[in-house]
Amino acid sequence: MKIIGTCVDRVDAIEKVTGRAHYAADYQPQGLLTALALRSVWARGYIRSFDTKAALELAGVHAVFTHLDAKALGWKSSREIDALGAEGLGRASLADAASKLPAYRPLTSPEIFFAGQWIAIVVAETLEQARAALALIKVDVETFEQEQSLPVRPGPFFAGDMQHQHDCAVETGAEAYRFSGEYETPMQLHQPMEPSATTAVWNADAVTLYDSTQGVGATRAYVASSLDLPEDKVRVVSPYVGGGFGAKNQIWPHQALAAHMARTLGKPVRLQLTRNDMAVASGYRSETKQKIDLVADADGRLILLRHQSTVPTSLRGGFFEPCGLNSLMLYKAGRVEVSHHVQRRAVATPTPFRAPGETPGSFALETALDELAHEMRMDPLELRMRNFAEKDHYHGRAWSSNQLPDCYRQGAARFGWPGGHLAPGSMKREGLAVGYGMATTAYPAPALPASVRLYLRRGEGILVETSATDIGTGMRTILLQTVAEELGIDPEHIRVSLGDSSLTDAPTAGRSKSTASLLPAALMGCRKLKAELDRLDPRANSATNLPGILERFANSKHDELEVIGHSLGMPDGSAMREPLSFYSFGAHFVEVEVDQSIGRIRVRRMVSAFDCGRIVNPKLAESQVAGGMIFGIGMALMEHGIRHPESLRVVSDNLADYAVPVHADIPQIDVIFVQKPDMSFNELGVRGLGEIGLPGTSAAIGNAVFNATGRRFRSLPMGIVA
Ligand code: MOS
User: Does 25-145+191-281 match 163-187+284-446+579-709 in CATH topology?
Assistant: First the structure.
């Protein structure tokens, strides 16, 4: 291969850094109005009345919408939307689990279910007018007691309180070691660089949404059902997305609300979430409490691995953080037990947040394994290798390709992992305590059906189109590479157009599935194009690529040629396809320095080795997984979403109070890709790698801090080491 596997520059880099790329809130249609929401300060309550007179009298204010206007807006409650069923939600929702998770729809009843719930929306000519009007709205609320914990009705994504137990009947010796640990991770907020935003513009009976979303197809389906419109009357455009992390994976009320308000007012409306809104109106990662029990024989082989999680969800919503998913299959153990106890609370609906479940789950599991290794005076890397699962015991399937042992070996070699038992507090450098830690990461490799259209027009090179979004991962670039490779043409003759629901279907960019869904479709499109040229011009043989595709087309009598390539993905969008189980794997190795005089932890080095199949673009892939590892540094040392214990308000709902790493916090990051193509997954052997960088990172950092100081952190962020 000549182009796949090389470091082609990100094709949209120049547009992005020069500001030419237009994001959802950059569109300025004629007569645009700005909407801003009033958030409830009460966690539970009942709105008796509003006084909006003063707000409405303010210059530039066009409307104040509350639940009393639901009928006028044509705005349905979640229950009414649910009643439409799968068909009502459109075909995109059938394929994409994320879109089956509509959040609670505010402005549908006088009841308040969480602090931060939108209870009124002002629409004005300027943001300043809208903000001033919000301050003038008076609300009379009867407050309720907050329920501590309610039973969970099974939801559509992860069904309620789940229990899994299974026996692998792995041969082990007698019980020799036993370890139990309890772990906690805090609420985390997405806060991507670009907050969620929708600009809704009506033209006669059709609406266009300039939106910041991970999936234009799912958004279109949901907004169309909300508006009672056929899908072809709704167009969702999202060519550039300034980060998603899961906040833009699920569908949130602002997208449809913008369209409803614009229809009612007869003017374009923009609804951009503020930083404060981003903490409550587009999901977050919930806090978790986890307990791990490990029992091992004298050789460190696991007899029991038990992972119990207690996690909250909202009063109206179904998602919870599925912490135990990786524990089901990542290691070989005689017996594996995983359970999730889900509690309903008066909080905003949580949502997927970059490797949901795997991320907090791996903090608990990978810390516990380190604790067990320490008790056994064993190398923690050796402990993991002894419990390597040579197949997916949980699903009872062979791995499609599992190069985890190579990740361990290559990562350890590059890092200079010492091996043996490394006593805590044994390394010092210039007065600082130095420590080494490691952890495993894994993430499923699913795929969904996708379509890519290739379009040749006389004198214009080739246009590659699909509705897939590029949320910063590099989808545009790797599609271009795939087409350039297969057709043997120079990338400069290829343009890629993405993120528009009027283009061919593609899944939402989430759950690390886009690469394996889209690239096989592009490949098939190229094959079809070559076959079509052969049919039109049988004299030249496409196998030789001589003359080139573009020359052959130029010599033909045709002005344009169009084909669509399809991929099938997995039957249900899972990471399973008979008879195999598809996962990506990796191993993190971390060095920290701890200044014990002031309690400061600094990550000094990270070496991580990943098995994600064939790597299409090492530069972009490295950037993606390093981004995940940096998330892990934030999770380990800084990020802390704080909810007031009584009022249940999110008090860290802004970037001043929610700390994230800055450039100076980031050490040398060394990424290794094992690069074994997963040929039973697809013809290119590629897997997604959107999320795999993050799981395990915070545990590896914590394990290194323990190694440096002997201090074990079982809750995050670690803060200072006294
Ligand atoms: Mo990602 S958390 O699967 O959008």
Answer: no
What is the distance, to the nearest Å, from the Cα of residue 702 to the centroid of all Cα atoms in its chain? 23
- Ligand 1 centroid to Cα of residue 688, in Å, is 12
β-pairing, 33-39 with 269-272? parallel
Task: Enter the tokens of residue 71.
Answer: 């009928």
- Alpha-carbon distance 512 to 7, whole Å? 20
Q: Is the CB of 246 under 6 A from ligand 1?
A: yes
Could you tell me the pLDDT band of residue 712, with boundaries at 50, 70 and 90? very high
Across 578-600, average pLDDT:
96
Of 99, 358, 511, 631, the one to substitute when testing ligand 1's pocket (max ligand atoms within 8 A of C-beta) is: 511
Its pTM surpasses 0.70: yes
Q: Is 354 in the pocket of ligand 1 (CB under 6 A)?
A: yes
Cα separation values, 285 from 278, 279, 350, Å: 12, 10, 6
Is 525 in a helix, a strand, or coil? helix
Superfamily, domain 25-145+191-281: Aldehyde oxidase/xanthine dehydrogenase, a/b hammerhead (3.90.1170.50)
d(CA 488, ligand 1 centre) in Å: 34
**What is 13-20+447-575's CATH number?**
3.30.365.10
Tokens coding 511: 């759950």
Helices (H) and strands (E) in the chain — how many of each? 17, 27
DSSP reduced 3-state for 137:
coil
For ligand 1, atom 4, name the residue with the nearest CA: 246
pLDDT, position 156: 41
CATH class of the domain defined by 163-187+284-446+579-709: alpha beta
Tokens representing 4 are 């796949």
For residues 635, 252, 16, 443, the Cα torsion angle rounded to the nearest 10 degrees is 40
**Which tokens belong to 202?**
């009506």
The domains of the chain are located at 13-20+447-575, 25-145+191-281, 163-187+284-446+579-709
Tell whether ligand 1 has an atom less than 6 A from the beta carbon of residue 213.
Answer: no
Burial of 446: CB neighbours in 10 Å, binned 0-12, 13-18, 19+: buried
Ligand 1 near 352 CB (within 6 A): yes
The predicted model gives 600-615 an average pLDDT of 97
